[in-house]
Design a protein that fits this description.
This protein is α/β, with parallel strands linked by helices. About 45% of the residues lie in helices and about 25% in strands. Strand 9 (about 150), helix 5 and strand 10 (about 170-175) form a beta-alpha-beta unit. Helix 2 (about 65-75) crosses helix 8.
Length: about 270
Amino acid sequence: MRKHHRKVLLTLFSIILLLAVAACGKKDEGTSTSAEAEEKVLKVGTTGLVYPFSFKENDTLQGFDVEVMEKVAEKLGYEIQWQLSDFSGLMGQLETGKIDTVANQVAVNAERQEKFNFTGPYAYDGSQILVREDNNDVQSVEDLKGKTVAAVLGSNHAKNLENADTSGEVNIKTYEAHDGTLHEVEFGRVDAYVSGRNILSAELGKIDLPLKMVGEPITIEQVAFPFVKKEENDALIEEINKAINELREDGSLKEISDKYFEEDITVEISN
C-alpha cells in the first residue's frame, strides 16, 4: 500500500510540476508579445543643418520642426529614430521607404501630393526673395529676370520661383544645403536668394549681415508631415492630425513657435 501511495503522490507531483511550467511559459510568452506590441518606432528624416527648424547644438538635435515632431510622438507613444541627410536626400529616402516621414519645413504642393499624403498643417511659410542691403532694384520675381538667383536643390522655394518665372528668364542656381547660401548673396556671387520667409526672418534677426527681404512672398503654403501613399499610413496620419490639433488647442504649438520666431508661424498668414 505504501508503494502504491508513493506512486500516486509522485504522479500528482509530476502533474502539478508540468502544469506550473506550462503556466509560466504562457505568462512569459504573453509578456513578450505585449512588450513587442507596445514598441512603436517612427523613422523621421531631417537635415540638422537649418536654424531654427532643425539644427544641432552641443551635438543635440533641436529646432522648431524637431520639437513639434517630438511633442506629437510623445502624445502618440512613439519613439523617434532621427535620420539626417540633405533635403533632396530626405525626400528620396521617404519615397523609397527608408524613413516614415520628414520633419523639415516640407511645404504641401501639387507635385508632392502626387507622391505623398500629408498630415494637416502644423505651420505656414512663404517663398521670400532676399538680396543685399544696398540692392534697391529687386522687389519681385519680375525684377529677377536676367539675374542669378540661389535656391536649395529640391526645395519647394526653388520650384515656386521656377513656376513664377513663366518666361524662364531667371537663372536659378541650386545648392545642396541652405548653410552658407546667405554668404553667396553677401559676397555678390548671386544676385538674390529665394528661401522660406520664416527661416530668413529668424536668421536675419540672429546674425548681422548686410541683407534684407524684399517684396511680398512669392507664394504662401502649408507646412506638414509627408507620408508615402499606402493604406497602413492612413490611420497614422489621422492619429498625428489629432495630436497636432490638441497641441494647437492647448497652446503648445504657439509656445514652440515663440521660442524661435518673432511671430506665430503656426497660424495661417495672408499674402
